[in-house]
Amino acid sequence: MKKSNNFKLHKLVNNRIPSEILGCIRKWGPISRARLAENCGVSRPAITRTVSALLQQELLVETALSDSKGPRRKDGLVLNPEAGYCIAIAYTVEGLNVIAMDTSYTVVAETSRWVDLHPMTEEERLQTIFESVDDILAQTRDLKGHCLGLAVADPGVIDHEAGIAKWSSILQHWHNVPIVDIFQKRFQLPVLLLNGASTYIRAIDRLEMREQSENMFFVQFGAGIGCCFKLGGIYISGNAMLAGEFGHWKVTDEPVQCRCGGVGCLEAVAA
């Protein structure tokens, strides 16, 4: 798979049907095409077309099903661990973590830097993050697959659709930063921006709980306090991605000053 195909591949897997099919294969693979159509609620012709495209892009591979015997043994579909890898970037006031994970959810490289990001200027903070991403790209240079994209977990309020970090109570000089645009220009890769807490609940739900629960409530606390909800199988972000900002709910009338500029916030009281 050539690196120049990354944006074409990104467009393919972000369409609804390919995304649903990849999700079903990740969850139930190896899985036959017939069962895939049943579980995804997608027509068999659509399954055939989409699976063919995903096989051509080397995102999927076929393997014999363990419960299939005889001369006409059926093949099942699984994610190809050598299709490539994605890089996840998470940063807080205390430092940053960057990992590379292949398409079978195996961590293939990681790095952590414990550095005070709070007082840095926007340019200094971005350069610090870039250095860690460059380190991961160097570690993964000899892997068979290419980097398929970057996911950035920002600790503040974001505009997901615009790809902008709007503000953060724990990072100075961090207002209306066009994260997606900056990272795409720097690394020439597709970039996804998410709120930190919403990223963590997805990781725990998918990798540890195997999406067995329809409802979850996740609380993240450290330098700040945030949360995320999963209700009826849907992650709740709320208006302007503010559903998890309960660290800034007012919980007291006492004059406790918060870093966000408010008074009486849960985050300030808990500090």
From TrEMBL:
It comes from Gimesia maris. Residues 21-60 form the HTH marR-type domain. InterPro entries: ATPase_NBD (IPR043129), HTH_MarR-typ (IPR000835), ROK (IPR000600), WH-like_DNA-bd_sf (IPR036388), WH_DNA-bd_sf (IPR036390). Coiled coil: none annotated. GO terms for molecular function: DNA-binding transcription factor activity. SUPFAM superfamilies: Actin-like ATPase domain, Winged helix' DNA-binding domain. It holds the Pfam family MarR. Belongs to the ROK (NagC/XylR) family. This is HTH marR-type domain-containing protein.
